[in-house]
TrEMBL record:
UniProt similarity note: Belongs to the SOS response-associated peptidase family.
UniProt cross-references to Pfam families, sorted A to Z: SRAP
Keyword Cell membrane: no
UniProt keyword annotations, A-Z: Covalent protein-DNA linkage, DNA damage, DNA-binding, Hydrolase, Lyase, Protease
EC number: 3.4.-.-
Enzymatic class: hydrolase
InterPro entries: SRAP, SRAP-like
Protein name: Abasic site processing protein
Single GO MF annotation: peptidase activity
UniProt GO BP: protein-DNA covalent cross-linking repair; proteolysis
Length: 227
């Protein structure tokens, strides 16, 4: 599953690259985030179907808008399996609330020995441009929260994420605008959730991404290690 991403690029630069306007309540001093842990429930840049001309921040972990006490809500809604989007009560009300989740790349674990810690791999596109991940969102008390959709791993990602065999839904230039259209049907949505069919750049990086006792929010985490 996708629990770690990189968000080092300034949101202002992302908006310019994507041709979107910024909609944020206050300008935050940009601090590059090389390893963003979803379990910290961070803010990430998104483009929401309900307002597709704007790039804004939503918080990672979807909180259904009927929940009375978010702190008491214990479900792990960082990711949503796309195959179950119309079945699970946590997600089925939000399939029309689609969004882009804009990241520089994402991390996946690679198991070499069950007795050893997993290796960490960083995945991005070859052009080093933003990756657009497919997500769904909820607006809770005026604030947006989201989940990243996942799908079966393609051949390349199955070799990297060799234990979980999953990958995030990645949208390319052919379909990312369609993802935000209000008339998108459930069947077509599922077609867009198919495994990504373009090559990605994946390489081993420094150890510790999946160890909370190690600070991996450093530039080296998005660079390949020398073998």
């Amino acid at each position: 599953m996708c629990y770690h991403v990189a968000a080092a690029t300034d949101i202002k630069d992302l908006a310019q690259t994507l041709g979107k306007e910024l909609k944020i309540k206050r300008r935050l001093d940009h601090q590059p985030r090389y390893d963003v842990n979803g379990f910290d429930n961070p803010l990430l840049p998104v483009v929401a179907a309900g307002d597709p001309d704007y790039l804004r921040y939503f918080r990672w972990r979807l909180i259904p808008n009927h929940i009375q006490d978010p702190k008491a809500y214990k479900a792990n809604t960082l990711n949503a399996r796309s195959e179950e989007i119309f079945e699970k009560s946590s997600y089925r009300a939000y399939w029309q609330n689609r969004c882009w989740v804009v990241v520089d790349g994402f991390f996946e674990p690679h198991v070499t020995d069950v007795k050893k810690p997993s290796e960490s791999y960083y995945i991005r596109n070859f052009e080093n441009e933003p990756l657009i991940l497919g997500g769904i969102y909820s607006v809770y008390e005026g604030k947006g929260t989201f989940a990243i959709l996942t799908t079966a791993a393609n051949e390349q990602m199955a070799e990297v994420h060799n234990e979980g065999q999953r990958m995030p839904v990645i949208l390319d230039e052919r379909n990312r605008e369609e993802w935000l259209r209000p008339d998108l049907t459930p069947d077509r949505m599922m077609e867009l959730c198919k495994p990504y069919d373009w090559p990605l750049l994946a390489y081993k990086t420094i150890e510790g991404v999946y160890n909370n006792r190690i600070n991996t929010n450093v530039p080296e985490v998005i660079l390949p290690v020398e073998v």
